């Protein structure tokens, strides 16, 4: 990640920087999620998992030194006029399909696809001796299983090529060119670093280009699986697409959907009131058609100002979205 | 036996003869004799355990210090067409590790680190299978006297006793006599056979060029790249320098160049390795992360843009040149005041006495610290080293590193035969007969003449991509798919 990659997370509205960092790292607390949703960067959840706090602080300091952002209060920052101009002149890559919350394993899907392409290409060219582009054992295992299943398919390479062609026609051509050039196959392959230089993307943008493309493919596989027989077997969408809720929150949400009151949920799940409140706040924030009014009606726990204030904030946010 | 070995060598690897030392080690292993093999970098150490693994039944376990090194070695075997190899380490999730442990019989080669091998579940599973050879790669890491000491290697003595392999093979490229003795003592193998071949690589010319300042150094490098026979590797001490210079070489010399360092993704690392191996890339600008597992025979030069971290590293890195036996060159570019920079690098990663004190006061506080210095202290602590032992050990390590650095600086500034100094440092009594193919005496002030003399002078002109269709600047996705699948 380079310093100016962070500019996309700022606007003229004052905001705290810590939620940006925790969103990029993929830390799921309600206050982070709320801030990320409020400021429109929730989809970038977990998109820079390796970023350290030291690096992040360095970037923020650099943005301030270059007068691209400015402090509004002790903890809040916003874009300067120079920062706004930069965002207009050098717009970042904008994702269309990517959502880090519902697609937490896109890197795995991409690696599986890359390895499958390499395997098929080398197979087509009758070459058995090559460096596999992925060394992760579990990914190699998945691709090996897939290849065993499909390798007797008539015109296998041609069919796979057709599916990839179909996918690339759904994307802007520059994005398709970037993604395709990063494939490895028989006597072919450019590193992402080379591509980023050629396409003038930062490393972070280069990653987003790839993740957005694979997200597009996964959504297609989910919607019309029969159009993608080979890709569907390689990347079963249920393994890569999920509800944006953690396992425990899902369990709480399921009981809520069954009509239980909040104290009944506490009893049934043997959880503290605070935990159940936190789960339902998360669900209210992340599930698009969540019924906040019903939640308020079924709240038979002791009054909690934080809980009601946050719910009101979510209601307000949803109104704006409508 | 010899005839069969040669036949097996040809059949499995396509070679018609062994390199020095290989046959003696392989015969020892096949006879079940524990062996310490010290062979220079590039002499084909891996073959010493790979060939016996194809001749005898059973599992060969290779202990390796780094995950990246294990992955490189597995990839190298996969490149050779060997599918029964696996690296058992933290990159595998729990269920994958369980799968490997319950299917050990399906594997011929298992790479692992001492910490993993020492796990009760791993030991229990390994004790159920027939272990042919336990290979301890980079065996010098077990010695507290060595600059690369790794505390976890100390567990290997006990692990070996539990595994009961038919033979133990300790491999290293660099071990002074003191380190050799330490290796055998720590593994409780005093009767092991020793197969030691000189660290000297006669086909590599050692050269040092002193540049007036940084700008002059950069200009000198670009001139060299214009004149040197390719391919080659340039080593840098930082990722940033490797990236910057790779770009500069591409722009100014128009030679396909890539940078390589530890921050690249695995996929990019393999792509670059593969393109270098197949000759598409001619120059690699790298940090010391590059090279492990690289087995390209025709590398004609290794340039050190910055001095290496130790004499041992220098030898390993220059040893990647000329594995095909043809004339090659190792060039070190130096500045008049370079030793200060090296001294700072030397201290990197080593805990200071204040850090040691703070750590032992509250070890739990530093349990998850990502700082290399605290990582080392954590390892030592886990291996039950006391504060005074650690202090003493670090003092030794500092002294060893200083000695290595001092010896290397002497090598750089020498006006007599550098090769002689090098073999002496590594404890060899060999008398080098210096000639003009050996090394530069003092700083080389006429590099072009040196290259001409060595027949390594080659004016590099702009390279035109061999296949214009695959020029990245004009590449469109339909062409890519066509190239890949048709």
From TrEMBL, chain A:
Highest taxon of source: Bacteria
Name of a matching Pfam family: HTH_40
Listed InterPro entries: Helicase_HTH
Domain Helicase Helix-turn-helix: 248-300
Entry protein name: Helix-turn-helix domain-containing protein
Organism of origin: Agrilactobacillus yilanensis
Automatic annotation (TrEMBL), chain B:
UniProt-listed Pfam families: DEAD (PF00270), Helicase_C (PF00271), RecQ_Zn_bind (PF16124)
Higher taxonomy: Bacteria, Bacillati, Bacillota, Bacilli, Lactobacillales
Entry keyword Nucleotide-binding: yes
GO MF annotation: an example: hydrolase activity
Key words, A-Z: ATP-binding, Helicase, Hydrolase, Nucleotide-binding
UniProt-recorded name of the protein: ATP-dependent DNA helicase RecQ
Gene3D superfamilies named in the record: P-loop containing nucleotide triphosphate hydrolases (3.40.50.300)
Helicase ATP-binding domain span: 26-193
PROSITE patterns registered for this protein in UniProt: HELICASE_ATP_BIND_1, HELICASE_CTER
Domain Helicase C-terminal: 220-367
Keyword S-adenosyl-L-methionine part of the UniProt annotation: no
